[in-house]
Amino acid sequence: MLLSRSSSSTYLRCSILSVLGLLSINTAMAVTPVSSDLDTVTDNNKLPQVELDKIVVTATRTPTKTSNVIAQTRVVDSEELRRYQGQTVLDVLKSQTGINVTQSGGLGTTSNFYMRGYDSKQVLVLIDGVRYGSISLGTPALNLLSADQIDRIEILYGASGASLYGADAMGGVIQVFTKGTNVQKSNLSVTAGVGSNNLYTVGTNGQYAYQDTTLSLGVSHTDTDGFNAVNAGKNFNADDDGFKITSVSAAMTQKIAPNVKAGLNAFYNESTSEFDAFPDFTGAVNSDSYSDQKNGSATAFIEHVNDLATTKLSYGHSIDELRTYDNVQDLKKSTVFDTTQNHTRLESQIKAGGGQAILGLEHLDQKIDSTTKYEVDSRTIKSAFVGYQLADTYYDVQTNYRVDDNSQYGKESTYNVGAAFRPLAGMRIGANYATGFRVPTFNDLYYPGYANLSLKPESTKNTEVFIEYANNNQLSRLTGYHTDAENLIAGGTNIGEAKIKGLSLTSDWKFNSFLFGLGYDYLDAKDKTPNGSNYNNELTYRPKNTGLVYVGYQQPTFDIRLETKHTSDRFSDGANSIKLDDYTLVNLSTNIYITPNLRANLRVDNITDEDYILADNYTLTNNFSSRYATNGTSYFTSLTYNWY
Length: 644
Known about the structure:
The chain is mostly beta strands.
């Protein structure tokens, strides 16, 4: 291990103390502002633009600066996404503060993520505003979304998004914006790269902007031999488990009248993932098991803007199609789980009382087609929401209310109330209260042999308080949160209760050419089910402490970034008998601008060759026992040529 448990705890404590000290110093004195002439690297050899106070949409459904958002928010912009070429959205999330990941091997393998103590079933994922994921499992396949076709990712922590987006957002919202949704000028780029485990990737992206028209088209392909996904277990098969994926993104916008714009954007993946199958009832294992998956979304919209309001009508469609080939007797036989979601939304943002009111109606159809025969294979959700946001010099206010009418379980309402004020220049103090819920999945309700039609939605009550300090050089925030969860679904019934509380500290700095940042999260997530066998035990895969530190340096001809993320030990079972060791990963990434048009990229992950485990149920006694492998030191390097 790079750090022992005692030294890693010291490291995390020092991180907290250092930032709190910096906060107190900066409250008393101003920091010298950085040069204001930052621009793109291709413009007269100036430094790349770095914005700490970014514009986000997900937190309020309207473009808002992060300095006016009540809930904790993180933005991974296109500049940062360059460091993840040849990887997936899940790999991007691994490096973000407050997010922990489990994965059954390398690229493309089954995964889950946890954010503020919630697993991915309880975090809503959107692609360009459209719901994305499997309605059978309830999980989004972020391990199958190529980062090469993504423009930016917005992360909204906590339950405030539930009153904006409805079910499944009680732990937060992650919205992925595809390339082409923000075209500024015409350009064309071509990328080719290679990496560890015989990984290669090729791709091209073109964008066109002229007067009232923008067009975008991108295609990329990644292929890797992978590594052996299972270290040991009854499904152990000592072979490499490969992965390949082809991704396409397209977008178009057209101004059709002085105040009217229409558009279309789409994103599509096709992938194949090899894996080590579990034994069948005879104990036999198919050594050539694999799955084919298709994932994507498409959105069409028309938008009207005037001095008083912005009104938008949109229709979205998303798919999650899975074919699994692991039959021992006949590999041509597949298990099928196909999800489709159709989403219609009418929304208006109206200027009122110095702020903005938001009104909206939504209609969502969800359907599953599977070789597993569900008693019910579709459902419809009709929704209405209203809200108000005020961003003032001295205070910020956000309040929202939403009603969802689900054809399976009836009506559920959620609300959110938040406010913040500025007692001193640059300082902001605020609080937020929100309710949230999660819809039972089709597996929860109708899976043959385990069906329970009387299941209620999971529900939460969430309180969040924060203190924040910002100036031209830095943005730092300390957030505390507390959640009571009821009707948690386990074993096919509503038996669970849990309490989740924690602290989250983030701090990002820039001084001329230097970038520095850190994050620390303390999480106490416990099972509070009355008379339960796991009462007061820690919830699985929720580490108490995670910490992130990065440092970067930028010049017009190159930039470099070194980052370290530490994850403390955690349990992989509800009885808290299987403990996974803590680990620390050190990653390095750099971009070298050989010419104004030619850029070389290099990323080296797990520099110290840390031996660690993300998922483990090896000590179980049934046929599904396994210990999953992780990658050692790995690299990826690429060349990108841009025509402007």
